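WARN no homologs supplied; continuing
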Amino acid sequence: MKGAKEIIKKELARVFNDKKLIVSLFIMPGILIIGMYYFIGQMQSAMINDLEKHISTVYIQNEPEGFKDILAENNFQADIKYLTEGEDLTEVKEGILNGDIDLLVVFDKGFLESINNYQSAEVIPEVKTYYNTSEDYSSNARSLFVTQILTVYQQELLTERFGDLNQLTVFQIDKDPESSVIVNNDKASGKAFGMLLPYLITFMLFQGAMALGVDAITGEKERGTMASMLLTPLKRSEIVVGKIISISILSSLSAVIYAVAMIFAMPLLMSGASSNSGEMALKFTLGQGAELLLILLALVYLYVAIIALASVLARTVKEASSYVAPMMIVVIAAGLITMFTGNSEKQLAMFAIPVYGSAISIQNILVGELTLAQFGMTVGGTVVLAIIITYLITKAFNSEKIMFNA
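OK structure emitted
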């Protein structure tokens, strides 16, 4: 395998002696990932702050006697305008539709009288709210009005009717909700990371391998350097092994940078939506770290083999890219599926499905639930397919028609 070593040295030297390639392959992606996630987190935070600062415009028709006191007592912050009974609502509803008005609240005619004269449940007065679900200000105004005002008002009216409401309470559910939560914080953090990280890792690994693999094989065919290499005393099987190992090394380095950047950037993203994001952290045991490393290496080997086969069969870089594009869609789909499978139990055979099996195994590692059998099926299924493809690449390298674009 001396020839393979020479090929590996040549490919690594080609990349690491080119400063532009180092920046574009290893530095810029990490900076972009962290910057992108930080920017999204800041945008989320700004959106929440904007909703909190916004003064809603609320119209109320037929407000019951004493309702203004409820609004004042609960310090409801809004620009409130009152409408008299029978006043036309068309203009107000048009304002809600256009986003100029946030909320319209209409009490039934004789609202309090109906409640005070209550005899049976056949006629129950209604408070109707009109709002625009496509407008954030409108949805937020409705949510705040219901929780801060109407719910409180309803409790007061019930107290007036029945006296001490505790007499109507048979039992309470979770009087202290926080004390009811039993959670493993490490698993909760792993689950949060597991929603997105497996998809991003599988996708970016493929993207990194594609950028390197197509140029290393089809690019050399186009430039004519591959033909020169084939005429050397090197065995073609050694050239194949050298190419695959060198591209795998570079892709693995690229993947490590992507993964570290995402782990560092994920709390920045979450900080925009949660004040507890600072508690998020990924923790691995030594065994879990080793399992993750082997799964990623097997996946890199498979990706490189797939891209190398497409590159060998293609005559030009453009043609190779067109062959690889459908495979990227498959990789994206396999990664995305893991985001929506929830906690459903996966059959052991599913872990042997290349790419998909790797994604759900990474997900299980993040929550600390990957079994040895699942790990074995994942690595085994991935490596077996990669070996089959490597054999096909070797056969293709031995074909003069394919390698010389005859």
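The beta strands are 56-61, 78-83, 103-107, 127-130.
OK
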